[in-house]
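Late entry, written up from scratch paper. The run itself happened at the end of the previous shift, but nothing got recorded in the book at the time, so transcribing now.
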Amino acid sequence: MAPWFARMMGVVGAPLPLGGLQTAYLTDYAQIFAYPWRTLSLGGVGIGPLLQSRVEPLLINLGVFAVAQGNLLLWPFMLWGLFRARRHVWITVGLFALGLHAAMTFVFAWPGARGGLFHGAAALVPWWAALTAYGVDALARRLSRRQPRRATLNWIVVAALALLIGGFMTALSMTPASEGAPAYIEAIRPYVSADDRVASVDPPEIAYWLGAGGVVLPYASPDVLSHLAEDFDLDLLIVTGVEDGGDGATSEALPEPLRPLLAALPPSLVLEADLGRTRIYRFVR
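Output as recorded:
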């Protein structure tokens, strides 16, 4: 990590991105793009909404534990193995797993639910695999207590079942290769050059296909867009998923505080192209 920390020191003057602790105050994942980030605070959120916002991440993280870590049906073997080996691994694996899941569910709930727990638990995967095998062996031994003559058969059946479940879940997790650029990328290609800096819902996707850098759309009102453009030297703002919402145009891709710009543009923006479900705006600076 040293080269990355050195790069961060040169770019922002700190080894890690600023504002990380403020993500503990998120009540919705979209707020991770709050601009400026200092608007996130306990006083601005309140204890009640903060606690209520932990319910959905809790359910998501239970799914991450059962499906991503426990291969949907292997987590009972995993936990049984952890219980059987608790004297040897509780101080290391057990406390780390408990602390990680607690932090990513109740403290940094939304970053945890949207990938933090999934990636953080990668360190547990080798341990979970070993403990699953230990749990499988423990179950086979328990089944063989009443019928010792079938001990070998019981072990083979239980182990084969565990391997079948693991193989099935591995096959499900494989994703096909991309067949090309999304339709909206082809639509905006004539309007975006590699020299442009773009505010969009998915800057890495635009950078990959068109070579244009930029920033993600902020969780903020349209009034702050002029400051955003100055801070990050932006040229364009691209909105995707535009549709008729009954009371006017709307887009689920836009953070909620930013959606009024579809009805009334701030002075810092002009409409450059209306492509139906995609709109391209240019910053006036």
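The chain has a mean pLDDT of 88.
(Scratch paper discarded after transcription.)
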